[in-house]
Task: structure prediction
Amino acid sequence: MEAYVKGARPRFEHSLAQMVELPSVSMDPTRAADMKKTATLAVQLLRDAGAEARIVETGGYPVVEGGWTTGKHHPTVLVYNHLDVQPAQEPEWRQAPFAFRKDHGLYHGRGATDDKGPALTALLAGRYVVEQGVPINVRFLWELEEEIGSPHFADALKPRAGISKPDSVVVSDTIWIAKGRPAVPYGLRGLLGARLSLRTGRADAHSGLTGGAARNPLTELCDLVNACVDAETGRVKIPGFYEDVVPPTKAEVENFLASGFTVGRFKKAFGFTSLRSADPAEVLHRIWASPTFEVHGLVGGYIGPGVKMVVPGYAELKVSMRLVPNQKPEKIFRLFKRFVAERNPNVTVEAEGMLHPFKGHFSGPYAEAAQRAVKEGFGKEPVFIREGGSIGAVTTMQQVWHVPILFMGLSLPEHGYHAPNEYFDWGQASGGMKALAAYFTELAAMKK
Ligand code: BES
Ligand code: MN
Ligand code: MN
Result:
C-alpha cells in the first residue's frame, strides 16, 4: 500500500491540477461551459484510472457515474463527492484562485479541498483495492450541483438513470476536528435559504425632501431581522421554530466533548476574535446540534465612498437557517413566511433551497469498520462527531436507497472551505487513500 500511494502521487497531483483549473462554479451561469468541461474531464480521469465512466443527465448539470464492478455477488460501495465549487472573488486570494499551485505538499486553488482533492483520493483508493483483487464493487458518484443545494440530484437516482442501489455509501466531503484529530461525522445540519425583497419607491429619493414621510426598505428589513433573531444570543424568535428540535443524546454530548475540540483552535482556524460563547460544550452544541438564523447580505442603498443621503426605493435581504433533526425545511419556511407576512405584508419572501438535516449512526458494523480504517490510514482513532454544514444529496440518497451512509471526510478546518486561499494537502490525500482502501477492504469482508 505504501508503495502504491507513493507511486500514485504524480497522477493524483496532475489530475487535481486539471480539475482545479476548471472554474466549476455551479451558481455562476457564466461558467456553464466550464461545468461541461468538468464533467468531461471527470469521465476521462475515471477512464484513465481504468474505471468505466459516463455522464448522467439531470434537469440541471449532470452527474458523473463510474467505477469498477468486479463481481455480481460482491458488495457494492458507492462513493459520493462533488466537483462543483464556490465562487472565488474574495480580495484576500494571494494567487489566481483557479491556477493550481503545488507548494511543499500543499495544493492551492478553489475546490482543492471542497471537494476535488477528496474525490480524486477516493478514486485512487478504489483503483488500489480493485488491483489487489479485493472482492468489492467500487462505484463513484460525482455531483456538479452540490454547492447550490443539489436541486436535481434526485433525477440521477431515478431508475431510468441506471445507477443501481449500492449496499452502502461513503461520503467524503466533511472536515476533521483538527490536523491529527480524525473525525468520522454522522450528522449534518439541514438548510433553508431565503431572499426577502421590499420595494417602497420607484427609485432612490433625496432624504431631505422625502425622509420622515418615505418608508425606508433597508430599515424595515433590518427590523425584520431583529424580529427573527436575537443578535446577542443567536436565539431565533420565529414562533414555532424550535418545536421539532431533538436535543443530542447523552452519548452524543459525551462524544462531542471527547472529540478534542478546543475553542482556541476553532477561533484560530477561522480567524475569529471572539465568539458568542467561550465554553467548548456550548460552542459544539451551537455548531452541530442547534439551528440558526443567519444574515448573509443586505443589498440596497448607497455603498460608495462617503454618505449619499438617499432613501432607497428597494432593498433585498439574503438569509438562511441551518436546521437540525427533526426540523423540516418545508414547515420552517411556512412558519417564516407567515411571520414575515404578519410583520410586514409588503415583503416578498422566496425560498432558496431546502435541505433536510441528516443523522446517521455512530455505532454498528459500518461505524466500527470506518473507525478501524481511519486508524489504519492515519495512525489514530477517529472520534464521532456531527457537522454543522449541509450536503443536500445525502438525504436524497437515504430516502431513495435506505442503505447505510458513512462519512469519511479528509479536509481540515484550516484548508479553508469556501474561503480565500483554499488548499488541500498530500498528508490528507495519502492517509485518505489508505483509510478509504482499508474501509473498502472491510466492506468486502462484510456480508451483503
Ligand atoms: N462540504 C460542504 C458541507 C460541509 C461543510 C460538511 C462543513 C462538513 C462541514 C459542502 O460542500 C457545502 O459547502 N455545503 C453547503 C450547501 C449549500 C451551499 C446548499 C453548505 O453547507 O453551506
Ligand atoms: Mn463540499
Ligand atoms: Mn462546499
